[in-house]
Amino acid sequence: MTLPQGLILAVLFFTVVFFIWGRWRHDVVALLSLGACVLVGVVPTDVAFDGFSHPAVITVACVLVLSFSLQSTGAIDVVAHRLAPKKGSPTLTIAALTGLAAVMSAFMNNVGAMALLMPVAIQLASRLGIAPGQVLMPVAFGAILGGMTTLIGTPPNLIVAGFRSEYAEQSFGMFSFTPVGAAVALGGVLFLAAVGWRLVPVRERVDADSFDTGRYLTEVRVVQGGKAEGLTIWELEKALEDSDAQLLGMVREGERVITPHWNKKLQAGDLLMIEAEPENLSQMLQAIGLRLLENVRPAKEDESELCEVKSVEPLAEGGAEHSSASSPQPEPTEAVRKFGGKWFDRRVTVSSDRTLRGLQVGMKDPSQEQKETPRGSDSSEIVLVEMVVLPDARLVGQTAQDLKLRSRHGLNLLAISRGGKQSIERLRRTKIAAGDVILMQGEPDRLASFASNFGCLPLAERTIRVPSRRRALLATLIMLFAVGGAAFGLMPAALSFGAGVVAIMALRLLPLRQVYESIDWSVVVLLAALIPVAGAMSTTGAADWLANGLLEYVAQGHTLIALALILILSMTLSDFMNNAATAAVMCPIALSAAQQLGVNPDAYLMGVAVGASCAFLTPIGHQNNTLILGPGGFRFGDYWKLGLPLEVIVIAIALVLLPIVWPL
User: Fold this and answer.
1) What are the residue ranges spanned by the domains of the chain?
2) Among 96-110, 264-278, 598-612, where is mean pLDDT lowest?
3) Is 300 exposed, middle or buried (0-12, 13-18, 19+ CB in 10 A)?
């Protein structure tokens, strides 16, 4: 081994370690790897950033834009909802939904396909009477399988096609991956539908019914001359933090205020809705000088509904009723339900399918459409919405305090679920992670805007939104022409899809800002940074050295064993690091192995493509796996129970077909 070979292998080793460690984002790790290669001299400075002009990188960015245009115009929504199964047995239903996910992900971003089908999957699981995860995991895996069937289905295929162009006159075409990829996807979908969904651990999804948003919802009155009178909302919340309590809203003179301004001063007679733990309740009331409501007859008839309320409303399901008042407490009247009971009391609304799951962003609760709202309030509804945090969302790593949810966005964060467990301690200081399910409260328009801007997916069933049939049709036609241009060799894939993006912009199917926002720049940077690193493995001879060791000590010169080894190694790496990074690392090794054995390198590159696209053992191997972590209530060790037999099936089918379709 030469010094340059040792240096590039050392850099590659630490790169893989940092990918698996996951402390830093994959694009940051890739840039550090590229920087290290430049510093040690294995990547010349004048080619360090050539990866940004690589056709694969350009194609990935363009495909993401075109995929997003199909989503935003509603074209894919229509397809998903019309083709999604409405009835049938669990096997047939899961087969249809998983097959639909595979077909969609062949021509669009597979994370986008999963995001569109996730609410449908949760609804179908409820109808079938099975755990949501038993539908979510097969659909997520089906979307991953579908990505390997076309050139644009997943970034690893584009990386592999780029390496093929180094030794052949042209790279792989649009449907070069289809013979093997479609057979693997079909076998995988059939297994998932017939047997696989039964292997998924049964975890009850942490939805709003089981969110623990605080044991007590307390309604208190600001007493004249008390400590609380004259305090600002900011001062009140600071005082509440000491008792781990949270202000959920207030009523002043019949006006309901869900997110009072931080500088608003409390007045005598204000009604406050406070969430607190039972053991901290007494301490909180004494420290701030607030009084639990009693059953007091009001002076004015029109205020009677606001005064006749419970002192303490217990939220624990199935538990005994608790109250600090000695006398029996009356049921909340309708006006109080609209503010307190309707949106906060689980037994009134959150357990109601009609109210939460049927409540779509922008819809009003049908039970309240014809009823008056309190005097001075606006006509907008306050709703509870569950959202799952998407991978690489802007929310990841931030807290409710960092985001200033109440003052800046007019929203309340009521609960966080992570891996099937609820977090209720110091909720405002809990850092949000990818895959978390968060329970948000606020006006529908604000919630929809927040979900869109910060990368969250509402889990309630959504309406089919087609802003314009013309826009949806144009987006579909542009995608078809781009695919056709690349498939029939009319122009290179990068140019064909680039022309599609230009058409999207020229016809204003997307606002220019969204064109750039739809690109996952972390993936673009990852690919652009690792392409020169992969090139250094070839130029230094490190790939030849690794391939020679694998062939001599493991494969022992057998071409089929070498193919299996490359496939399994790619699959294993992909379970712990980004699949595009896996393809970039494994392609030079596959090419070198094929050269030393004197066989057709196409089969080995296709083995890398299949293996890099099959990350089924961990929640971190693929973004789809992370996406279902919270909604399915899964744990880290749940994935391999279905993923391992699925990977065995993939290996068996691929090893039979690869030598046939791409003869060695």
Assistant:
1) 3-206+476-661, 216-340
2) 264-278
3) exposed
Q: Where are the beta strands (DSSP E) in 229-283?
A: 246-252, 255-257, 271-276
Contacts of 235 (CB under 8 A, 6+ apart): none
For residue 618, the Cα-to-chain-centroid distance in whole angstroms is 15
Distance CA 325, CA 291 (A): 11
- Measure the CA–CA gap between 525 and 530, rounded to whole angstroms: 8
Token output for 379? 């006509």
Q: What region does 423 belong to: left with phi over 0, alpha with psi -120 to 50, or beta?
A: beta
* C-alpha to C-alpha distance for 253 and 249, rounded to whole angstroms: 14
pLDDT in tens, 476-505: 999 999 999 988 878 888 999 999 999 999
Dihedral sign for Cα 180, 20, 517, 465, please. positive
> Which stretch of DSSP H or E encloses residue 416?
strand 412-418
- Which range is least confidently modeled, 130-144, 154-168, 203-217, 532-546? 203-217
Beta-strand relationship, 421-423 and 412-418: antiparallel
pLDDT, mean of residues 216-226: 71
Residues in the chain: 664
The topology (CATH level 3) of 216-340 is Alpha-Beta Plaits (3.30.70)
Rounded CA gap, 355 and 363, in Å? Answer: 10
Four-point Cα dihedral 232, 237, 238, 239, nearest 10? 90
Q: Which of 643, 646, 547, 549 is nearest to 589 (CA)?
A: 547
Mind listing the pLDDT tens digit for each residue in 336-371?
333 333 333 332 222 223 223 223 333 333 333 333
Q: How many CB atoms lie within 10 A of CB 461?
A: 15
Q: Are 401 and 248 in contact (CB under 8 A)?
A: no
Tokens describing residue 543: 């790939």
The token pair that represents 29 in the structure block:
């790790």
* Distance, CA of 436 to CA of 447 (rounded, Å): 17
Cα–Cα distance for residue pair 213/344, rounded to 1 Å = 9
For the whole prediction, is pTM greater than 0.90? no
Helices (DSSP H) in 424-468: which residue ranges?
444-454
State what percent of residues in the chain have pLDDT above 90. 28
Q: Distance (Å, rounded) from C-alpha 285 to C-alpha 288?
A: 6
Task: Give the contacts of 371 (CB within 8 A, at least 6 positions apart).
Answer: 334, 338
